[in-house]
């Protein structure tokens, strides 16, 4: 469990986690669960199926469940005569847009069975543990009544109207577009979309005439899922969306399930960064929308991860950061590292900026004011970042992107490390007792992969409020790893109720000063190397 295990590399850490159980993080809100209890916690899901679910609502958090859509095979089924220029004809507009760029395909994943999708075909890749994703190339039309995408035969199909489709009219795929197909609880809340070829009578009788014609492919996704927790919003929402369709350069129409104005409002900049078109509200819009192709569902690589070896264009999480930066700050000046005015001042006149994530309710820093003073005495300009204020995410972006260091206790708000400047800024995560590895894997490893300096401050027993609740030497505070092991199938109960929800921290100022001092001296070194022209930092 020791944090040092990660030194063997990411793979080790991830395997370790997988060996211990699947992490599932969730915010559950009353609209998702019958219960009126509103939780906003990161949830840990062991795969021990004997473990009682934390609150009735979270059943199904455990191991992957077989479902009608859990086939592991994948196949491209061609429904009509192949047309040249193939390679996913659905991306045709993007191809033209590219002007001499390499041929655009709908599926950007390396080695995917769907990457050489011929025109007029449906292909689903169900090989991944986390998510299924389907592609349709050809004349795709929505059928609101059955929440389906129908693939119509090419207009001049040899053999006469609809004849080509007749042979293969039974092709039908069903998919719930979300990244946690192993998580039965949430997956069953995701609307199931049917993809099928139009039946001959549909294709010939003038059904599904287009009410709205789009010249870019549809990208069917959900605004639902664990949508009230910032970690999930990015980990299971925007990052996978970007992974799956960034190569189309906004020439894709988001067709959203569970569309809601709050989602559209809170994440408006990111949504327009993904797509140049208005979002189609797939559940409420009864019109027939026609597209030259479709992507349904998203890829998923890892916690807040972009695995560049799986993408045709080698994009990395730094590119995702840049995408966010472009979405929020059109005038970002790359050469000055974010274009914040103070960043351009010569080092002597500028103190590095440090943001402290101020949590409420649980995993609170009890001596936060003293910690803020400490940081100031070390030499930082300190900003206490209040959370859950209802401020738009653009305001959070504006703050965090100006920080040289972000400090906070483990929690979903740390997802905003994605806004920090790669190669320049730092993340310092305070890991409460019992969740050191969880903290490292969810935020530490992804932050380091984005080129941030990462510091983890593991609190000691004496810094945890649990030391007031348990007698001295109690296993829960003295040896959390053993305490967890001893719980067996009930490990999750302990993690959730005690370590995640039942703990505040009070930082040892002497020890935490060392962490802050390291961040500060690294910042100074960086400034000096910039001044001396030896700036070896990755260009943003
Ligand atoms: C990235 O993907 C490749 C190919 O699937 C895989 O072999 C590799 O382990 C992945 N890298 C990471 C860091 O997960
Ligand atoms: C991606 O990386 C591979 C291997 O390093 C390289 O062969 C390929 O040309 C790169 N592709 C792009 C689009 O940069
Ligand atoms: C943690 O601090 C918050 C805010 O002061 C308080 O409401 C909560 O009861 C504390 N929790 C524990 C376990 O001490």
Describe this structure in words.
With 540 residues, this protein is of the alpha/beta class. The chain folds into 2 domains: 82-156 and 168-315, no CATH class; 352-531, Rossmann fold (3-Layer(aba) Sandwich), CATH 3.40.50. The chain has helices spanning 10-20, 92-98, 163-166, 184-187, 200-204, 230-245, 261-266, 268-274, 317-328, 368-378, 393-400, 436-449, 466-469, 475-478, 480-487, 491-500, 509-531, and strands at 75-78, 121-125, 133-143, 148-152, 172-175, 193-197, 212-213, 218-222, 253-257, 280-281, 289-296, 353-358, 381-386, 405-409, 426-431, 453-458. Strands 1, 2, 3, 4, 5, 6, 7, 8, 9, 10 and 11 form an 11-stranded mixed β-sheet that branches. Strands 13-12-14-15-16 form a 5-stranded parallel β-sheet, with helices on both faces. Mean pLDDT is 79; it is low at 1-103, 157-167, 331-342 and 534-540.
């Amino acid at each position: 469990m020791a944090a040092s295990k990660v030194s063997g590399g990411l793979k080790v850490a991830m395997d370790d986690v997988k060996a211990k159980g699947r992490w599932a993080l969730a915010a559950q809100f009353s609209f998702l669960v019958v219960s009126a209890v509103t939780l906003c916690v990161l949830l840990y899901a062991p795969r021990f199926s004997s473990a009682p679910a934390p609150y009735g609502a979270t059943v199904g958090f455990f191991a992957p469940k077989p479902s009608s859509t859990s086939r592991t095979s994948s196949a491209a089924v061609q429904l009509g005569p192949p047309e040249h220029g193939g390679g996913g004809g659905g991306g045709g507009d993007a191809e033209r847009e590219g002007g001499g760029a390499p041929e655009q395909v709908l599926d950007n994943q390396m080695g995917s069975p769907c990457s050489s999708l011929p025109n007029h075909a449906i292909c689903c890749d169900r090989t991944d543990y986390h998510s299924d994703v389907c592609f349709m190339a050809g004349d795709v039309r929505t059928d609101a009544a059955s929440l389906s995408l129908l693939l119509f035969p090419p207009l001049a199909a040899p053999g006469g109207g609809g004849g080509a489709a007749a042979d293969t009219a039974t092709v039908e795929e069903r998919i719930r577009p979300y990244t946690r197909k192993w998580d039965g609880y949430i997956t069953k809340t995701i609307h199931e979309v049917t993809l099928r070829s139009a039946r001959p009578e549909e294709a010939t009788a003038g059904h599904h005439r287009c009410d709205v014609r789009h010249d870019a492919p549809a990208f069917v996704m959900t605004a639902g899922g664990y949508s009230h927790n910032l970690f999930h919003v990015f980990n299971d929402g925007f990052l996978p969306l970007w992974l799956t369709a960034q190569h189309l350069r906004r020439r894709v129409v988001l067709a959203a399930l569970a569309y809601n104005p709050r989602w559209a409002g809170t994440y408006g900049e990111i949504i327009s960064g993904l797509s140049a078109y208005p979002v189609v509200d797939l559940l409420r819009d009864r019109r027939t929308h026609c597209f030259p192709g479709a992507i349904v569902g998203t890829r998923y690589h890892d916690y807040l991860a972009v695995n560049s070896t799986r993408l045709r264009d080698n994009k990395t999480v730094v590119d995702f950061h840049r995408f966010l930066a472009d979405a929020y700050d059109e005038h970002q000046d790359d050469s000055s590292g974010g274009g914040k005015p103070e960043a351009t001042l010569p080092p002597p006149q500028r103190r590095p900026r440090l943001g402290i994530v101020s949590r409420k309710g649980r995993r609170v820093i009890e001596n936060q004011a003293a910690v803020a003073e400490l940081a100031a005495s070390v030499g930082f300009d300190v900003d206490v970042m209040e959370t859950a204020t209802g401020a738009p995410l653009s305001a959070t972006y504006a703050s965090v992107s100006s920080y040289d260091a972000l400090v906070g206790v483990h929690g979903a708000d740390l997802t905003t490390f994605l806004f920090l400047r790669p190669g320049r800024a730092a993340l310092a995560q305070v890991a409460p007792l019992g969740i050191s590895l969880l903290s490292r894997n969810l935020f530490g490893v992804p932050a380091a992969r984005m080129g941030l300096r990462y510091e983890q401050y593991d609190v000691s027993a004496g810094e945890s409020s649990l030391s007031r609740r348990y007698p001295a030497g109690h296993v829960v505070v003295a040896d959390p790893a053993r305490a967890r092991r001893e719980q067996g199938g009930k490990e999750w109960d302990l993690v959730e109720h005690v370590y995640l929800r039942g703990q505040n921290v009070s930082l040892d100022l002497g020890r935490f000063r060392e962490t802050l001092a390291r961040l500060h001296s690294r910042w100074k070194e960086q400034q000096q190397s910039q001044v001396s022209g030896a700036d070896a930092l990755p260009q943003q």
